[in-house]
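Side project, low priority. Logging it here so it doesn't get lost.
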Amino acid sequence: MDLLNAASKRIYWPLCRAYARHRGDRSADALLRFMCSLEFCRAYGFWPSFLRPRRFSEKVWSRQLHDRDPRLTLVSDKWRVRDYVAKIIGTEFLIPLLWHGTRPEQIPFDELPPQFVIKANHGCAYNIIVQDKTLLDRKHVMDQLSTWLMENFGQKRGLGIAWAYKNIIPHILVEQLLTENGRVPLDYKFFCFSGRMEYFKIDFERFENHSTRFFDRNLAPLSLVEIGLTMYEKGEIQIPPNLPEMVRIAEELARGFDFLRVDLYSVGSKIYFSELTAYPGGVSARFNNAKYDDSFGEMWKERDIC
């Protein structure tokens, strides 16, 4: 299976990306849907319906293939979304910005604090966490940023169908590194359907021994995890007292969207905005329990995009 996955990514995915580039900003046609259906079936074990999707997984893929709402580009842009968030809930929820620009060589490393985060705004996993500036290889960082800035994430990653990222103008952000008890804080991810939070998950130790736990709106834990991740089982999970406020913020930010995942941090009693996600898991994430693929899909009352 690992060999099949590797072969698919090395041979088949580039073919899909090439045809998706040919389509440009147009909605997917029958051929692109067929090409993606083959890969979806290989990964998920059933043939999808992208024109009349029912399951959550189908709807995530269908949105990538068909939905050309410019707001998806706005919320996926980690630079422009800061203004969006500020207008809706206020600047006090934004992680402090230390510097921004488009040229890596202009980053004022000497003026930055001992710890910070460098990120590019136009894709996923474009992050460099700096725990100790004195150990930083500045040339390596600038080379990595230059590589990211030249890459169109929407066209060159996965199957090339992550349209929301395709037209983002690349930008560099340097933000304050949030810590709690000397560690990266827990990450709260709220799944909002038609502006209402129905499920959320907590990510633990994302950059060390990543594990996660899902809950429903009533705080009932779910027997659910994304394949490839580990379910958190290290003891009782303390739900923060400001969770109702986080839910309120998530629903404010998701209002007007048929589906949006809202990611937040809670550091002490302070809530910070992390990001908005239109395509959770992209073309890779799968649930370990198929019933949640169904239930999440039922919650997503998809607007007519075809």
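Brief comment: The two ends are 34 Å apart (CA to CA).
Revisit when time allows.
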